[in-house]
């Protein structure tokens, strides 16, 4: 039954965020941290988008399951997401894999990550559970999806969006009828089937699911008892409900949070170095598709206390300046030039350096006279004086990680090897 009156459904929902994956396609960026903990947009981490969507939608009970190299992620959650108050019927649970079912089992799949915490979820007594992927960048009002779930009488409601077929093989692909009922669901097919009438598009799962809590618990227990299951939502739980129950698709366009009159709906996986670089660099556009300045739907995060950014020196050839760039607090641009770049907190770019099309993570030091173009630089890297990257792709590939699209990833270990 739906809650009485006009009370928001979000008050009766818990958001369970799956944040245990490495994200190996991001290469060395996830050597020390899980993909949801990767920095994004100058101040945030990728997981902040799913968490902010939940809070902005009115959901005040949240659980985050962590597993792979979770220390960075857990520290971020403890610092930036510690404002929930139990006396207001709010909660924020961090649930590391802790062999709660068996001494030999960590989380073996996305469904198992929820199953191993059923007792904690049952204690919350919420009517609905919203399962979220913690590694995508988007703005979405989950209250709209919850309403569709209740009004359609679905066993599960699956968030979905149209995606270029060539980019769809890493996602669950579904076919729906004219009423939104999911007819088939294929997890990460090598050859994604096209949408009817749209041969270049596939309908992809966003990794967002809404369940009635008791129904979900029953399905998880059934799945846990199946020795042939991978205990994964996309591989097992959703296909089973498609065959034996009522699975409904929710179109992202219906609940996407847009800025003003902008008709575009923004969603990014940012799961490769190229995609990660592109999603960050896009923020330097005059009117970017993702509006980080929208105070009506803010992206909450850990707000580090820092001094303002500083630009110093004003002489020919040694002028601290930035064009079409985002520069975070505590950055010092000392007689250097930036163009179309995004700098995270505490970056120091020294005199005579030129930086273009760069995504630079916190506390990087760029040495004098360095020339950097089309790069992603990991946290804390110290770029040597005079280093040149982005002008000779073949040479860059021998020293650093380079992509097919010409983006160069630089870590401190790569820098250290230059001197050997």
UniProtKB/TrEMBL annotation:
Record field: catalytic activity: alpha-D-glucose 1-phosphate + ATP + H(+) = ADP-alpha-D-glucose + diphosphate
Its biological purpose: Involved in the biosynthesis of ADP-glucose, a building block required for the elongation reactions to produce glycogen. Catalyzes the reaction between ATP and alpha-D-glucose 1-phosphate (G1P) to produce pyrophosphate and ADP-Glc.
Annotated positions binding alpha-D-glucose 1-phosphate: 107, 172, 187-188, 205
Signal peptide start and end residues: none
Domain Glucose-1-phosphate adenylyltransferase/Bifunctional protein GlmU-like C-terminal hexapeptide: 307-410
EC number(s) from the headed UniProt entry: 2.7.7.27
Domain of life per record: Bacteria
Protein's gene: glgC
NCBIfam families: glgC (TIGR02091), PRK00725.1 (NF001947), PRK00844.1 (NF002023)
Species whose genome carries this gene: Bradyrhizobium macuxiense
Domain Nucleotidyl transferase: 15-284
One of the GO biological process terms: glycogen biosynthetic process
Family annotation (PANTHER family): GLUCOSE-1-PHOSPHATE ADENYLYLTRANSFERASE, GLUCOSE-1-PHOSPHATE ADENYLYLTRANSFERASE-RELATED
Family: Belongs to the bacterial/plant glucose-1-phosphate adenylyltransferase family.
Pfam family, one: NTP_transferase
Keyword hit for Secreted: no
Pathway as given in its UniProt record: Glycan biosynthesis; glycogen biosynthesis
SUPFAM superfamilies in alphabetical order: Nucleotide-diphospho-sugar transferases, Trimeric LpxA-like enzymes
Residues under site feature: Could play a key role in the communication between the regulatory and the substrate sites: 67, 106
Protein name per the record: Glucose-1-phosphate adenylyltransferase
InterPro entries tied to this protein: ADP-Glc_PPase, ADP_Glu_pyroP_CS, GlgC_bac, GlmU/GlgC-like_hexapep, NTP_transferase_dom, Nucleotide-diphossugar_trans, Trimer_LpxA-like_sf
């Amino acid at each position: 039954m739906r809650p009485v009156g006009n009370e928001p459904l979000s008050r009766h929902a818990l958001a369970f965020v799956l944040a245990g994956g490495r994200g190996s396609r991001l290469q060395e960026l996830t050597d020390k941290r899980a993909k949801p903990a990767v920095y994004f947009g100058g101040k945030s981490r990728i997981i902040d988008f799913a968490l902010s969507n939940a809070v902005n939608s009115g959901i005040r009970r949240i659980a985050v399951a962590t597993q792979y190299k979770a220390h960075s992620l857990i520290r971020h959650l403890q610092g930036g997401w510690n404002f929930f108050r139990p006396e207001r019927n709010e909660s924020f649970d961090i649930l590391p894999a802790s062999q709660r079912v068996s001494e030999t089992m960590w989380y073996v799949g996305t469904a198992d990550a929820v199953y191993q915490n059923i007792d904690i979820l049952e204690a919350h007594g919420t009517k609905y559970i919203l399962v979220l992927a913690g590694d995508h960048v988007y703005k979405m009002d989950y209250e709209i999806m919850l309403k569709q779930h209740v009004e359609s009488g679905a066993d599960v409601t699956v968030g979905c969006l149209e995606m270029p077929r060539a980019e769809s093989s890493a996602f669950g692909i579904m076919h729906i009828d004219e009423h939104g009922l999911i007819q088939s669901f294929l997890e990460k097919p090598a050859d994604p089937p096209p949408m009817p009438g749209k041969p270049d598009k596939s309908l992809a799962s966003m990794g967002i699911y809404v369940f009635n809590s008791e129904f979900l618990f029953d399905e998880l227990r059934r799945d846990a008892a199946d020795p042939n299951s991978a205990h994964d939502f996309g591989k097992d739980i959703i296909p089973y409900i498609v065959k034996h129950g009522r699975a409904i698709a929710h179109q992202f366009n219906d609940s996407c949070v847009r800025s003003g009159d902008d008709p575009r709906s923004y969603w990014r996986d940012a799961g490769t170095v190229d995609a990660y670089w592109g999603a960050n660099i896009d923020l330097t556009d005059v009117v970017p598709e993702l509006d980080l300045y929208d105070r009506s739907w803010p992206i909450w995060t850990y707000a580090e206390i820092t001094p303002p950014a500083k630009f110093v020196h004003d002489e020919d050839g040694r002028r601290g300046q930035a064009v079409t760039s985002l520069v975070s607090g505590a950055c010092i641009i000392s007689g250097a030039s930036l163009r179309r770049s995004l700098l995270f907190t505490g970056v120091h770019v020294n005199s005579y350096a030129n930086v273009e099309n760069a995504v630079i993570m916190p506390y990087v030091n760029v040495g004098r006279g360095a020339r950097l173009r089309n790069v992603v630089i990991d946290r804390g890297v110290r770029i040597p004086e005079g280093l040149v990257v982005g002008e000779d792709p073949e040479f860059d590939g021998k020293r650093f990680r380079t992509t097919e699209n010409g983006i160069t990833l630089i870590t401190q270990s790569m820098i250290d090897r230059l001197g050997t």
